[in-house]
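Field guide to reading this record: the first block holds the primary sequence, the second block holds the structure written as discrete tokens, and the final block holds curator observations. Each block starts with its own label. This record concerns Orotate phosphoribosyltransferase, catalogued under organism Flavobacterium azizsancarii.

BLOCK 1 — SEQUENCE
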Amino acid sequence: MIFNKDTAEKTAELLLQINAIKLNPENPFTWASGWKSPIYCDNRLILSFPSIRNYVRDEFAKNIEKQFGKPDVIAGVATGAIGVGILVAESLGLPFVYVRPEAKKHGRQNQVEGFLQKGQNVVVVEDLISTGNSSLMAVEALRNEGANIKGMAAIFTYGFNVAEDNFKKANIDLYTLSNYENLLDLAVQKQYITEDQQSTLLEWNESPSTWGQEKE
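BLOCK 2 — STRUCTURE
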């Protein structure tokens, strides 16, 4: 669920402007999972544009507090959400921790890095939601440390049905600055794509794991 429509449209426009999101239905990208995709999203680019990263920081800080109440700690999911998570924590005057994909094999063997006390209220910041699996693994790691997860806030989601189901099963409220639906509407309006290309992008979103296989 998006925080609000205006933020969703503005965020989508900014991501397109800096090529953090690329749309290419005719020459699809290949994800690490092997899926063919007409869209590629790299929100780490936001950190290289001061005015845009400040916008993302401010929208996160404002909407997190409004939606979840002010938490005790902000947690970022490594690695993509560490930078923006720190910005949000700084804006709210809160401690910050981050969550590794898995525990370290050496030293203290931490998966959650930083100071976290049992029972603290945590909002998790993420850069991108696809299936939600890696994001929810971070939630599980925080819960294992005794954290009370108030919810998750992400920059962008592809809006897959499987992600919605996964978050429901985990009993985690997810809110995003923007999403796939608002992105496509904005992209057509601003002539980044045609309506025919929009149809292709919508088809992919319905069945991303099998889309494009017949073209090989």
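BLOCK 3 — OBSERVATIONS
The two ends are 34 Å apart (CA to CA).
The longest strand covers residues 148-157.
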